[in-house]
Specification:
The complex is a heterodimer of chains A (284) and B (320).
Chain A (H helix, E strand, L loop, with lengths): L3 H22 L4 H6 L1 H11 L15 E4 L5 H10 L41 H14 L6 E6 L6 H12 L5 E7 L2 E2 L2 E2 H4 L5 H8 L2 E6 L3 H13 L6 E6 L22 H9 L14
Parallel strand pairs in A: 1-2, 2-3, 3-7, 6-7
Antiparallel strand pairs in A: 4-5
Helix pairs in contact in A: 1-3, 1-4, 1-10, 3-4, 3-9, 5-6
Chain B lengths: L11 E3 H15 L3 E5 L9 H6 L4 E3 L4 H13 L3 E7 H4 L4 H9 L6 E5 L17 H6 L5 E3 L4 H13 L4 E4 L4 E3 L14 E4 L4 E5 L3 H14 L4 E5 L2 E3 L3 H11 L2 E8 L4 H12 L4 E6 L9 H7 L4 H13 L2
Parallel strand pairs in B: 2-3, 2-4, 4-5, 5-7, 6-7, 10-11, 10-13, 13-14
Antiparallel strand pairs in B: 1-8, 6-12, 9-11
Helix pairs in contact in B: 1-7, 3-5, 8-12, 9-10
Classes of the chains: A alpha/beta (284), B alpha/beta (320).
The complex binds thiamine diphosphate and magnesium ion.
Chain lengths: 284, 320
């Protein structure tokens, strides 16, 4: 049984890490990172079978791909807190000579990253490729991939959406961060996406829905998707609030790609309990 | 005639701001200019155009391939579509759509690309395209322009709208010195002579033109006279100006915020190797991806600083 209280404590620290990373380099994407924190904590601290000593090939392990690479600060924090690399390294986010690039990359050899992302729309194909590899090799573990909702406007997504059910990739779980926001405004104003559930169902996927800011529900849904083997890939439509955890960042697109100033950062941190110890950094 | 002392910084603005100003001006003059964007309207600094001509603004969402096809269709019926997004998503992401529906099909589409090169900074290598000039230059019939400051970018937008044919216009994110006098005429395919000199030809494009000006000043102090030429149009190249300068000086340096393969340096080398083989040094990235960091610190780390231009000039002169 999952210790939901413990997961929430970790999530609080991860949210602090996000704010402190983007504050220190004065760039990056806090909004989506905060909204997806509970998902990342559930995956890496409860749901996935994974090894922080990191093997690129992930044989016998679950694998996770981040397609919407701009929310990297949450990925980095969770990887560090799970033991993939030293927590102290979080302070180098987006600085020159760092392994913590603005968007995640394998190029600098950061443990935990399996493919570069940042240019949107490519991750579902990569995840489907690895799901196929696992099946070819008789490895029954699951491949998870996260995309943004705005990201779903990319055509390549729908090529992968056809491929996965056609090839019965039952070990593939696509999670869509349905926060209703993208850079130029609400998704319904920029380019209406309609019902993800209806679309993916019509393409041949199993649909699950969850509140991605409810830890209990998130853990439960992910575990169900992970265990399911019925010849169909799974699409989880996950409702989140951009900026979740910091009152003035919630529900607006303003904080998609903007760092808080000192006062704002302090305000944000005052709302988030330090549970595992902040990574050391000067000035915050 | 321009000269080193006339090239003074009068303030700083991003070249993408010049794009926005140029687009508004071009929109005022030509009512068939239509702007498209793929969820990056804010980054393109074009609110003036969008607010004045909302009926000529098309938001396509995050779907660049679709945007290129839409532009080809709009152009077919007589519009002058201006596509806008970051340089990576304007080129590599949609190369075949550009190749088939725009270049091969002779469509009058203006591909306007911000955040080119290393200087977009912290977003890092996924976004920092250093190969776009090469890719776009290889497309038959494509005009390729990389302006160097706010004023030149603004003027370039008006020129490309008046030019018939596909164009790739590449500009950047950071605030950058404005030094090209406002009344300087922008002619597609015509090199801009910035300063007369006799010892070495420096051909520069984009943000690095300012660094080349600073390098030329420094070199002048040291007694090296630079023939400084701004190649804003990489294709078609002003071969006449390039050959004339190389003939005069006998040594060449090229400066660009791009990989050493396929960009300005390659373009000049291809021209001179045929017409007038000349020792040439490259100031360009050394076949590498970029990384996160601040704009100027990245230019320095990747060998694109003023001191790198000075050193390249000395090497070139030494090879005469
Ligand atoms: C191919 C591509 N086009 C454009 C961008 C620029 N961009 C980065 S994030 C973003 C918005 C993404 O929206 P969504 O997926 O909903 O993520 P959220 O804003 O909710 O975090 C855009 C357009 C990009 N990174 N890649
Ligand atoms: Mg979104």
């Amino acid at each position: 049984m999952a210790d939901i209280q413990e997961l929430k404590r970790i999530a609080s620290q991860v949210r602090r890490d996000i704010i402190r990373q983007v504050y220190l380099c004065q760039s990056g994407h806090p909004g989506g990172a905060l909204g997806n924190t509970d998902l990342f904590v559930a995956l890496f601290f409860e749901v996935m079978k994974h090894d922080p000593s990191f093997n690129m090939e992930a044989h016998g392990e679950d694998a996770f791909f981040l397609s919407n690479g701009h929310i990297s600060p949450v990925f980095y924090s969770v990887l560090a807190r799970a033991g993939y690399f030293p927590v102290e390294e979080l302070k180098t986010f987006r600085a020159i000579d760092s392994r913590l690039q603005g968007h995640p990359t394998t190029h600098e050899g950061l443990p935990g990253i399996r493919v570069a992302s940042g240019s949107l729309g490519q991750g579902v194909s990569v995840a489907a490729g690895m799901a196929l590899q696992k099946r070819m090799d008789g490895d029954d573990r699951t491949v998870f991939v996260l995309t943004g909702d705005g990201e779903q406007q990319e055509g390549q997504i729908w090529e992968a959406a056809l491929f996965a059910p056609h090839n019965k990739l039952e070990n593939l779980v696509l999670i869509i961060d349905d926060n209703g926001q993208q850079i130029d405004g609400p998704t319904r104003e920029v380019l209406r996406l309609g019902s993800f559930a209806d679309k993916y169902r019509a393409f041949g996927w199993d649909i699950m829905e969850m509140d991605g800011n409810n830890m209990e529900e998130t853990v439960e849904t992910l575990k169900k998707a992970q265990a399911k083997r019925n010849g169909k890939p799974t699409c989880i439509v996950m409702k989140t609030e951009m900026g979740m955890g910091v009152d003035y960042m919630v529900g607006t697109h303003h904080w998609h790609g903007k760092a808080p100033n000192e006062e704002q950062a302090k305000n944000a941190l005052s709302q988030l309990e330090e549970t595992l110890g902040d990574f050391p950094a000067e000035g915050i | 005639m321009l000269s080193l002392d006339k090239l003074q910084s009068t303030g700083k603005k991003a070249t993408r701001d010049g794009f926005g100003a140029g687009l508004k001006a071009a929109g005022d003059q030509h009512d068939n200019v239509v702007m498209l964007t793929a969820d990056l309207r804010g980054s393109m600094k074009s609110e003036d155009f969008i607010n004045t001509y909302p009926e000529r603004f098309v938001q396509v969402g995050i779907s660049e391939a679709n945007m290129m096809g839409l532009a080809a269709g709009l152009a077919t019926g007589g519009k002058i579509p201006v596509t806008t997004t970051f340089a990576n998503f304007s080129t590599g992401r949609v190369y075949d759509q550009i190749r088939q529906s725009i270049a091969y099909s002779d469509k009058n589409v203006k591909i306007c690309a911000s955040h080119a090169g290393l200087t977009l900074g912290e977003d890092g290598a996924t976004h920092q395209i250093l190969e776009d000039i090469g890719m776009m230059r290889m497309l038959p019939g494509m005009t390729v322009i990389n302006p160097c400051d706010y004023n030149q970018t603004k003027a370039a937008v008006q020129a490309i709208v008046e030019h018939h044919g596909p164009v790739y216009l590449r500009f950047g994110r950071p605030s950058w010195p404005i030094f090209i006098p406002e009344d300087t005429k922008f002619e597609i395919g015509k090199a801009l002579h910035l300063s007369e000199g006799s010892d070495v030809s420096v051909f520069a494009t984009g943000h690095l033109v300012w660094y080349a000006v600073e390098a030329a000043r420094q070199l002048k102090e040291e007694g090296i006279s630079v023939d400084l030429i701004n190649i804003h149009t990489i294709k078609p190249l002003d071969e006449e100006a390039v050959v004339a300068s190389a003939r005069k000086t006998g040594a060449v340096v090229t400066c660009e915020e791009h990989n050493k393969y396929g960009g300005l340096g390659s373009t000049i080398a291809e021209c001179l190797s045929k017409q007038l083989p000349t020792p040439q040094e490259y100031v360009a990235t050394d076949d590498t991806f970029g990384e996160s960091g601040e704009a100027e610190e990245l230019l320095e780390k990747y060998g694109l600083g003023v001191k790198d231009i000075v050193a390249a000039v000395k090497r070139a002169v030494g090879r005469k």
